[in-house]
Amino acid sequence: MFLSIKGLAKSFGSNEVLKNIDVNIEKGKVLSIIGPSGSGKTTLLRCLNSLEEPDKGIFTFNDGLTLDFEKKISKQEILKLRQKSGMVFQSYNLFPHKTAFENVTEGPLIVQKRKKAEVKELAEGLLEKVGLKDKMDLYPHQLSGGQQQRVGIARALAMEPELMLFDEPTSALDPELIGEVLTVIKDLARDNWTMVIVTHELQFAGEVSDEVLFMDGGYIVEQGSPEQVLKSPKEVRTQQFLQRIL
Ligand code: ADP
Question: Where are the beta strands (DSSP E) in the chain?
């Protein structure tokens, strides 16, 4: 087990977006989160990376780091939580005035203060891994959406996080560009990265995941193997969602 979460709750004003969520993230495994729009998927992911602070919930990591959000949490603990994961956003969020290479090296150089030569080697290797070594001196606007998202993945990997988070990584892409991004994510799964993926791509979720979690209305309605949740869901709400989307 990499991370155990118990009793996670989050509201925006009177809108209870996450209601008493328990979830375990297994080391080296891929967990996909599916569910209708507005069900709380992105908020759950953002809580994992402390882009949102939970109102309640206890996070226990395999290295002993424990955060209880009902208690006061220090800046240092939040920083530790943030450093554990790398996030890949729907809209890439690349720095527009930096090249692909500079986007990947920025974090390790500026945040982690690593040595230039070492970071250069790391970035070249990662850009090669996502199939963009020949494009590393281009700027985001010179790249297709699929290429930009692959830079986004290389950039998150460059921080060497223990957990990779993907927030609908292909939903802003034209259909013909989706495959190249999914292929990169499948490669990472094969390399045993620990990943949590919010996705509408059910076929992809079925292929890449060890576990699928269906959310609706701020609750986890059902979770299990991809075969079970996607092919023979037990809960009516899951059945209805899958019928609508397939
Ligand atoms: P999903 O990813 O399943 O579409 P979200 O987690 O994005 O769902 O959103 C769940 C609910 O939380 C929605 O009702 C949304 O409007 C609300 N919400 C999300 N982020 C914020 C925010 N920063 N401020 C206020 N409401 C938010």
Answer: 3-12, 15-25, 30-34, 56-61, 66-68, 85-88, 163-167, 194-198, 211-216, 219-224
Q: How far apart are CA 177 and CA 152, in angstroms?
A: 15
- Assigned token pair, 96: 């527009």
Cβ atoms 180, 148 nearer than 8 A: no
Query: pLDDT digits over 76-93, tens only?
Result: 999 999 999 999 999 999
Instruction: List the structure tokens of 207.
Output: 């292929």
Tens-digit pLDDT profile for residues 89-124:
999 999 999 999 999 999 999 999 999 999 999 999
Q: Is 37 in the pocket of ligand 1 (CB under 6 A)?
A: yes
Per DSSP, 63 falls in state: T
Cα(231) to ligand 1 centroid in Å equals 28
Exposure string over 4-26, b if 16+ CB within 10 A, otherwise e? bbeebbbeeeeeebbeebebebe
What local confidence, expressed as pLDDT, does residue 57 receive? 97
pTM: 0.96
Q: Does ligand 1 lie within 6 Å of residue 40's CB atom?
A: yes
φ, ψ for residue 27 (rounded to 5)?
-65, 135
Q: State pLDDT tens for residues 163-183.
A: 999 999 999 999 999 999 999
Candidate of 43, 171, 221 to mutate for ligand 1, largest count of ligand atoms within 8 Å of Cβ: 43
- Beta-sheet strand order (sheet of 66-68): 15-25, 3-12, 56-61, 66-68
SS3 72: coil
ipTM entry: 0.98
